[in-house]
Amino acid sequence: MADSAGIQQGSPAIGAAGLVPAAPGAGGTEGSGAAGGSARIAAKKAQLRSSPRPKKLEKLGVYSSCKAEGPCKCNGWKSQNPPPTPPQTDQQTNAVNLQEPCRSCSHTLGDHVTHLENVSEDEMNRLLGIVLDVEYLYTCVHKEEDADTKQVYFSLFKLLRKSILQMGKPMLEAQESPPFEKPSIEQGVNNFVQYKFSHLPSKERQTIMELAKMFLNQINYWQLETPSQRRQRVPNDDAAGYKANYTRWLCYCNVPQFCDSLPRYETTQIFGRTLLRSVFTVMRKQLLEQARQEKDKLPPEKRTLILTHFPKFLSMLEEEVYSHSSPIWSQDFLAGAAGGQIPIHTVISAPPVSRPIYYSTSPVSVDPSTCGSVSPARKPASVLESNSVGEKRKASEPLHHEENKRPRVLGDIPMDLINEVMATITDPAAIPETSLLSAHSARDEAARLEERRGVIEFHVIGNSLNQKPNKRILMWLVGLQNVFSHQLPRMPKEYITRLVFDPKHKTLSLIKDGRVIGGICFRMFPSQGFTEIVFCAVTSNEQVKGYGTHLMNHLKEYHIKHEILNFLTYADEYAIGYFKKQGFSKDIKVPKAKYVGYIKDYEGATLMGCELNPSIPYTEFSVIIKKQKEIIKKLIERKQAQIRKIYPGLSCFKDGVRQIPIESIPGIRETGWKPAAKGHQNAWPFMEPVKKTEAPGYYQVIRFPMDLKTMSERLKSRYYTTRKLFMADMQRIFTNCREYNPPESEYYKCANILEKFFYTKIKEAGLIEK
């Protein structure tokens, strides 16, 4: 197996307990992991391979067919005195006698191993390794209770048994060979890191790399649930597809961890999005739950990484895994303006400009008991816990491949210069952090920093009449009812309570130190394409901290994920200013027929609406603007440094020159000045001389060609000494066009329109009589 580039799999020991694979067919005991099963098998193989050659022949004879003359159907030598079960450790090893007869066919041991007389030690050791794998799989077949898994074990048992008889290498016979899906999970995660985090400073990006390695390692050592377990948990799932992937995983990833005579592959390198989708939700919930239970056992150096950063990383990845439009699963994934496929290793190197991160809200974590079960062959991993569990917006993101492939426009800033500037503005030593009290800091900057530090959390919650009440959610709903009642004194408390606890309404809650300090209550109308915002409030002692703006930004992200792009709300005179700052206006984009009869009408309030742009990551929008300003600032500084050159004054006016072209002023072009473009929309066919390749035979028909570029050059060289010369060349452009092109052509029409425009301007200037 080739080493994977980019995000490499690290040690399976993560957190306190780490994660170790379970031996196939083993029970869920502490010693059934890799350290137990694999180590014991490896020790047995080493011991057997160090045995004398006769002992090796005896072992191989058990799995070798009889070669004696005559028709003998014995497929393995059987000792007359089989060893006791279990074997006695103090029993002395008897000398091997090649003349000892077989208990089954009466032929000698030597008759069963004649084909091994001239075999090298290396080949014999290889065959002995297969023998021990066969014995191990035989035990697995008898211990395994799941029918699908037992069938796979038995098939592999027969395959290895056949390899010994034929002295060949085990080759799995399958319709498809690895990899089974492209891009692989590993490639997809690398694309995800590049797509979402390449804008971060190097230190933060390194943290993301560690999280990605941790996640890939979890997948490689994760024990898939059996098809029967999955059918019970997800009855409507694609059972046949999951069973196929489960079988492949057993054959290529799980069993080869212990039976090393079979070729082994990493799960993340041969499987793709399909398998990841089938395990991600269960895996994420179980890891978070165990981390909550064992957080006190985590090493101090990994506590923040696992308990704070990893949950958000998983939440963002979860959205890309289940989104139908995420670009990270495209085989042509691009993340650079120059185009070209990104190899995995570029995640490590300095990245180009890319989309920033964003993390939205979601419902509170559910009871892990509803997440399904894992195979009893392993113990769940101990990894991480979230202080804000959530799903996030769908990736209908604007970084489409078509944009990356678009042709560069004249005047675009070179990408190498952009990358150089980006390296400067992301260097913490090169640019000071904006003070939260600065006039230039964004309204939500303080709230965003508090969320990153885990001081505040955002959760979309609601009451349910179908599920068992969650005590924490009910407590938060009561807290929201209190906040809304206190901050909206003119609203009846009974009305607030009814809507907050109404199952059709949801509330984006703002949690600080375990208590509710604000929220936005809303009702979604997916069929009508809008959401009604009912209540919006932050408790008085927590205002003027940017919470309201950040709360609304999270709500926008949540709705973009659910593909609802319009908000409607009735705002009183005290709330109009807030909603205007959040992008609301009185210009309602939703057709009136869509919302009349759906939303609640309030007397004395103003109906306001907000149309969401799915291309904008609202929770990080101010960060993007800040970085764009820094880029422009740095580019201006560089340009100023280049043009700080003093040119001699203009002396031509002393010689009687009344005027000169602007572009002839020394240094004017170095400042970035460009001559005004010829702006008439119908002038485009006449800007440059006609090319022979575009109009064959043109110069045989038109003897005196003319174009605007030639006229400009003549104007600079003072060719036009009279007005008539200038007008004659201009008229020639129109005449030539009408002579060569048919009247119904676009060129003919452009000539007529531009000619009319030209003579209108000439008359306005008084150059000809009107």
Quick rundown:
With 770 residues, the protein is mainly alpha-helical. It is built from 25 helices and 6 strands.
Radius of gyration: 37 Å
Given the C-alpha coordinates, what overall shape results? extended
Portion in helices: 40-55%
Main beta-sheet strand count, sense and barrel state: 6 strands, mixed
**Uncertain segments of ≥5 residues (pLDDT<50)?**
1-22, 25-35, 86-91, 335-410, 428-440
Question: Structural class, from secondary structure content?
Answer: mainly alpha
- The CATH topology of the largest domain, please? Aminopeptidase
CATH superfamily of the largest domain: Gcn5-related N-acetyltransferase (GNAT)
> Number of domains in the coordinates?
5
Catalytic activity: L-lysyl-[protein] + acetyl-CoA = N(6)-acetyl-L-lysyl-[protein] + CoA + H(+); L-lysyl-[histone] + acetyl-CoA = N(6)-acetyl-L-lysyl-[histone] + CoA + H(+)
Family: Belongs to the acetyltransferase family. GCN5 subfamily.
GO molecular function: histone H3K9 acetyltransferase activity
Keywords: Acyltransferase, Bromodomain, Cytoplasm, Cytoskeleton, Nucleus, Transcription, Transcription regulation, Transferase
What keywords describe this structure?
disordered N terminus; Aminopeptidase; 5 domains; 770 residues; 6-stranded mixed beta sheet; 25 helices; transcription; mainly alpha
Description:
The protein has 770 residues and is mainly alpha-helical. It has helices at residues 34-49, 53-61, 109-112, 121-143, 147-166, 185-197, 202-220, 227-233, 239-254, 267-270, 273-294, 300-322, 401-405, 415-425, 445-452, 471-487, 493-500, 547-561, 576-581, 592-595, 621-643, 698-701, 708-716, 723-740, 746-764; strands spanning 456-461, 506-512, 515-525, 530-538, 566-571, 606-611. Helix 18 (547-561) links the parallel strand 4 and strand 5. Residues 25-36 have a biased composition (Gly residues).
